[in-house]
């Protein structure tokens, strides 16, 4: 969404879109602090990392399994290398060792793509000095709070009950689990209450929660 469209939504009193929410939270927490964007590349080419730079973060790092995209490289060159890029797996101790700690960690669109989300949250805790901004796709709350559905090998009928229309095919949710696609798969259908409980188990205290129709955004303090 363009900046003009975002301003129009605010003027009309409409609820912020998910990307607008992320940008607003980054702008609120990044100034004067170090910043790491985990999973920075796919479809956004480091856009949130660059937004942290523009918002006044003192040092910004982006990390992703993917190689830096041409769009990222071009923009980073234009900004005199303002974003340090680390190619690696956040679940790998060698990657967190290279990253070190940052005051603010931003991670969106990752948690439901990993086989062990609690491990991933513990890795985020290792690199987070103060604040975590976490965004995740969610499924509707179920009868039992804190429900998480493991999607690989779930039958098609039950997968259809959990999916929804989106611009991109959700591998492992719209389709069968594809072992060769690794983290491209959706491994989990997470309720917002399950995400929050896992954050607490990993050593975070949830300070702010923003619920959207199919996603949640949580601002947490490292404890």
Order of helices and strands: HHEHEHEHEHEEHEHEE
- Could you estimate the helical fraction of the residues in percent? 25-40%
Q: Cα-atom Rg, whole angstroms?
A: 17 Å
Strands of the largest sheet, in order across it?
Answer: 3-2-1-4-5-9-8
pLDDT below 50 for ≥5 consecutive residues: which ranges?
Answer: none
Could you say how many structural domains there are in total? 1
Which CATH architecture would you pick? 3-Layer(aba) Sandwich
Biggest β-sheet, characterized? 7 strands, mixed
How many distinct beta strands? 9
CATH hierarchy class name: Alpha Beta
Word description of this protein:
It is a single chain. By secondary structure, the chain is an alpha/beta fold. The chain has one domain (14-222): Vaccinia Virus protein VP39 (Rossmann fold, 3-Layer(aba) Sandwich). Helix content is 33%, strand content 25%. It has helices at 3-11, 18-29, 47-54, 70-78, 93-99, 117-127, 156-162, 192-201; strands at residues 34-38, 59-64, 83-87, 102-108, 128-137, 148-150, 188-190, 204-212, 215-222. Strands 3-2-1-4-5-9-8 form a seven-stranded mixed β-sheet, with helices on both faces. Strands 6-7 form a two-stranded antiparallel ribbon. Strand 2, helix 4 (70-78) and strand 3 form a beta-alpha-beta unit. Helix 2 (18-29) packs parallel to helix 3. The longest helix is centred in the N-terminal third of the chain and has 12 residues, at 18-29. The chain is globular. 38% of the residues are buried.
């Amino acid at each position: 969404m363009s900046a003009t469209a975002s301003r129009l939504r605010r003027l009309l009193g409409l609820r912020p879109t998910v990307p607008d929410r992320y940008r607003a939270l980054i702008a609120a927490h990044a100034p004067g602090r170090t910043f790491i964007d985990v999973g920075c590349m796919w479809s956004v080419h480091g856009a949130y990392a660059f937004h942290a730079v523009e918002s006044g973060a003192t040092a910004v790092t982006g990390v992703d399994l993917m190689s830096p995209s041409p769009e990222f490289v071009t923009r980073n060159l234009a900004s005199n290398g303002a974003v340090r890029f680390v190619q690696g797996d956040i679940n790998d101790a060698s990657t967190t060792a290279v990253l070190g700690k940052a005051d603010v960690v931003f991670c969106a669109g990752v948690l439901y793509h990993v086989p062990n989300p609690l491990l991933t949250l513990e890795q985020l805790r290792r690199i987070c000095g103060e604040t975590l901004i976490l965004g995740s796709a969610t499924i509707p709350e179920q009868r039992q709070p804190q429900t998480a559905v493991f999607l690989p090998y779930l039958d098609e009928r039950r997968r259809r009950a959990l999916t929804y229309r989106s611009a991109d095919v959700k591998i492992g949710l719209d389709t069968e689990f594809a072992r060769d696609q690794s983290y491209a798969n959706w491994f989990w259908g997470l309720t917002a209450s399950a995400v929050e409980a896992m954050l607490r188990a990993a050593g975070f205290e949830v300070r702010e929660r923003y619920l959207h129709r199919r996603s949640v955004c949580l601002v947490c303090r490292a404890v």
